[in-house]
Structure formats: C-alpha cells, structure tokens
Write a structure and sequence with these properties.
Layout lengths: L4 E5 L5 H9 L15 H9 L5 E7 L2 E8 L5 E5 L8 H12 L14 H9 L18
Antiparallel strand pairs: 1-2, 2-3, 3-4
The structure holds coenzyme A.
The site of coenzyme A (COA) has 19 residues, from β4, α3 and α4.
Length: about 140
C-alpha cells in the first residue's frame, strides 16, 4: 500500500477532511491544552498558512492522512484511524523529508503518546530534551 502513496499540497478543498481527521485525535495527541477547535477556528487556522509545508497523503485518489513541517522543521503527521500501523506513516515521513531536504527535523510529542514515540524512534529520531511547562489558567 505504502508504495503507491502521493503527497498533495493542501488546498482549501481539504479543510473538511482535515477537520474530520482532527476529530479522530485523542486528547493525548494534543500537546497544548486547547483540544478540538470549533469549525470556524479550524477554517481560520488552515487559511492562516500555519506551516512551511503541508500535504494531504493520498492513496488511490483517497485522502488518508496529512503530514506537515513547521517553519522550525517540526514534523506533524496524522494517519486516519483504521489504517494506522501499515507502514503509511513511515513512507509519508520519508517522502516529506525527500521533498524538503533539511539538515535537521524535530518532532514534539506528547509523552503520553507512546505509539508516536515508538514511531519516531523507529524512523531514526533521537530524544534530545524534555520540556516542562507551568500554566496559570486564570491568566488570560
Ligand atoms: C503515529 C503515526 C503517524 C504512525 O503512522 P503509522 O502509519 O501508523 O506507522 P507505521 O505503520 O509506519 O509504523 C512504524 C512504526 O511505528 C510504531 N508504531 C506505529 N503505530 C503503533 C502503534 N499503534 N502501537 C505501537 N507502535 C506503533 C511501530 O514501531 C512501527 O513499526 P513496526 O510496525 O515495525 O512495529 C499514526 O499512528 C498516527 O497518525 N497516529 C495518530 C496521530 C499522532 O499521534 N501523530 C503524531 C503526532 S505528530
């Protein structure tokens, strides 16, 4: 399956698919405390061109996931539930790196997201830091 994958640049016609994909995420995947955005927040976010590179992963004309790079070369990758664990993520990550050759790539992962930690380690990423945070929820 993974051999027939394509990466297509995001367009406005992908907004709904991205929202559906987002709704599949469990809370452990979010690093920030924001959780699921509203539809309006989502549309605004996509239109703001938040990433340096952002692709839809396509298999046989079907959208099956998304992969992105921030302006700091942080990778984000999401494969539709039900087809995870079949090598698609690894293949899409390789394609992203081939299309965008850089010296260094980062992945910020929620420590509770064990599958993702395993995924990035398996794909050659090394742990370089633990980041701690304090929040003041009353402060706006
Ligand atoms: C993490 C994710 C991108 C991996 O993509 P994938 O297509 O499922 O992964 P692959 O099939 O290429 O797996 C490669 C390796 O990752 C690890 N892995 C992937 N899914 C795993 C799971 N559910 N449990 C444990 N390890 C897993 C394994 O080590 C696997 O190698 P193996 O099959 O030889 O054991 C995908 O599962 C996903 O979209 N998860 C939800 C979103 C997310 O957590 N994204 C990361 C935040 S940036």
């Amino acid at each position: 399956m993974a051999s027939a994958l394509k990466l297509k640049k995001i367009t406005l016609s992908d907004i709904r698919f991205l929202y559906e994909l987002l709704s599949e995420r469990e809370s452990k995947i979010f690093i920030s405390h924001k959780g699921m955005p509203t539809w309006e927040e989502h549309v605004k976010f996509v239109k703001s061109k938040p990433y340096s590179k952002w692709y839809i992963i396509i298999h046989e004309d079907k959208k099956i996931g998304t992969v992105s790079l921030t302006f700091e070369n942080e990778v984000g990758i999401f494969i539709k539930k039900g087809i995870q664990g079949r090598g698609i993520g690894s293949c899409a990550l390789k394609m992203l790196i081939e299309k965008n050759p850089n010296l260094r790539y980062l992945a910020n992962i929620n420590p509770k997201n064990k599958e993702s930690i395993k995924f990035f380690k398996k794909n050659g990423f090394k742990l370089i830091q633990y980041t701690y945070e304090i929040t003041n929820s009353n402060k706006k």
